[in-house]
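Residues determine shape. Next comes a sample protein:
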Amino acid sequence: MIRGRFITLEGIEGAGKSSLQRHIADALVARGQRICATREPGGTPLAEDIRALVLRRRDEGMPAAAELLLMFASRAAHVAQLIRPALARGEWVICDRFTDASRAYQGGGRGLDTSAIESLARLAHPGLTPDLTLLLDLPPELGLQRARSRQDAGDRFEDEELAFFARVRAHYLQLAEREPGRIRIIDASQPPEAVLEQALTHVEAL
């Protein structure tokens, strides 16, 4: 059986990843592809339990190193129990965030050592890299405005200062500069229809 394709969506809060994921999945299903749409942190019962730990607001706070380790604990379970089996079945996996998020948020945003992040990546998903990453890029001011206007209560990441998201965005753009063949930048400040059109153009190349 032919291995499926692995597509990841990245970007700061409010970039529109979840909506785009649904539209890409619909377009691929219409073309006869089998789809596994998932998210990080999360994706399996164990990984979703860890997600709740990571995102919940608490008076105690969370050290950056603990945050990073929990992210990769969730990712290891997600990859082993969902992503690799789906790819082996020939499904196209569309994941809302993956390891680039740890590189941008915990590396760029928190300032954690990049070599430690890469070591954890090799441990959590050896040999697995997305075939395509769509980076939905937009100014942090706009992203936070969108995120905070949603009906839900949000999570503790949305409580971060604007400077944090500026660092995250800058790191994402550095990653895209280093890997232009895999990471494709899309201007997420455009109307959703234009974002989807560009995204499907990149997906079509797979």
Residues 64-88 form the longest helix (25 residues). Residues 6-204 form a domain with the Rossmann fold fold (CATH 3.40.50.300).
